[in-house]
Design goal:
By secondary structure, this protein is an alpha/beta fold. The protein contains 13 helices and eleven strands. It has a six-stranded mixed beta sheet with strand order 6-7-8-9-11-10, sandwiched between helices. Strands 2-1-3-4-5 form a five-stranded parallel beta sheet, sandwiched between helices.
Length: 323
């Protein structure tokens, strides 16, 4: 019997995986990538055999539907935790689904619920990384051993791990997610990881340098309710894009924010953040473009062709302007 773990390389995917491993999940192959590399499940199908087990964390079921159905038909037992758009969920005895699309939920929190909070500090890190600060602090407040400074340290860790996943390729990242998962594995307490890990120190320094550059940027376009930033074609900008989007969403509370990043192969990568009370879902808007998806308040487009940039900005301002 073979085990495999397919997970998003961001903080939410890594912290979900960490909780399951601390709970005794057996060793297995780790399949992951950069933040936007979510069509990952097909990498499992080629060697799949009846009786194998696969755990899927923080990647859209809808995007991976064909591969999921192939695994289930091959007799693979699949456990699926996610909070992104699912489409119709297959009804199959081999699928154990933990799916919740609520805007205040992330995959680390779904794993925390399944494990009855046994490794909650890692769930708190995942929540902070997924920009669910209120939910993270609510969980932290219930932990008698966490004082304010420790909670802030968990926030810094979550943001740094999440920031590391943004990039066009693994070469853009300071630490490949699979390597980061391996370094995290021995640590039951994320505070100890933050204190002792060399990888964590590399992330913290890289994050500081990149964000100093990112915060100098000015909006490329701005209308009432909709603000668009265009990043330079540089590795630091690709790494900083996700954290910058979350920071700008807080700085421009009440507005929709778009981050447009040029890709080295042509076209653009787009990140969108919208207020929780927005009448238009970021995920629904992004799905009007062929490679778009995400969740209600945070979504993106994996490839926007050069010729569609004006179409995107016009649609973005039409949908979210005047908020």
């Amino acid at each position: 019997m073979n085990h495999s773990y397919v997970f998003n390389g961001d903080a939410d995917g890594l912290c979900a995986l960490q909780q399951l491993r601390l709970d005794g999940a057996p060793p297995g192959a780790l399949i992951t990538g950069v933040k936007r590399d979510i069509a990952l499940l097909a990498q499992v199908t080629s060697g799949a055999q009846r009786g194998d087990r696969c755990t899927v964390l923080d990647i859209s079921l809808d995007v991976n539907r064909v591969a999921l159905l192939a695994l289930l038909e091959a007799g693979v037992q699949v456990r699926y935790f996610d909070h992104h758009f699912t489409g119709e969920v297959p009804k199959h005895p081999g699928l154990e689904a933990h799916l919740d699309l609520s805007p205040n939920v992330c995959t680390s929190l779904l794993v925390d619920r399944a494990l009855a909070g046994r490794f909650r500090r890692w769930a708190i890190v995942g929540l902070f990384g997924d920009s669910l600060g209120d939910e993270a602090r609510a969980l932290a407040a219930a932990d008698a051993g966490l004082h304010a400074a420790a909670t802030e340290r968990l926030k810094e860790l979550g943001v740094a791990i999440n920031y590391n996943a943004y990039g066009e390729t693994l070469e853009d990242l300071h630490v490949p997610p699979a390597s980061l998962a391996a370094e995290m594995a021995p640590f039951a307490d994320p505070l100890a990881f933050a204190e002792q890990s060399a990888a964590c120190r590399r992330l913290a320094e890289g994050f500081r340098q990149d964000m100093e550059l990112a915060r100098r940027l000015e909006p490329a376009r701005r209308t009432k309710g909709a603000i668009c930033f265009t990043l330079p074609d540089a590795a630091w900008a690709r790494r900083a894009s996700g954290t910058l989007a979350n920071d700008l969403a807080r700085s421009y509370a009440g507005d929709a924010v778009a981050i447009v990043s040029p890709k080295t192969t042509g076209g653009y990568l787009v990140s969108i953040r919208v207020p929780r009370d927005s009448s238009v879902s970021a995920e629904a808007f992004c799905r009007t473009f062929p490679t778009g998806g995400g969740r209600r308040t945070a979504a993106g487009i994996n490839h926007l062709p050069n010729e569609d940039l004006q179409k995107f900005t016009d649609a973005f301002e039409t949908q979210f302007g005047g908020a």
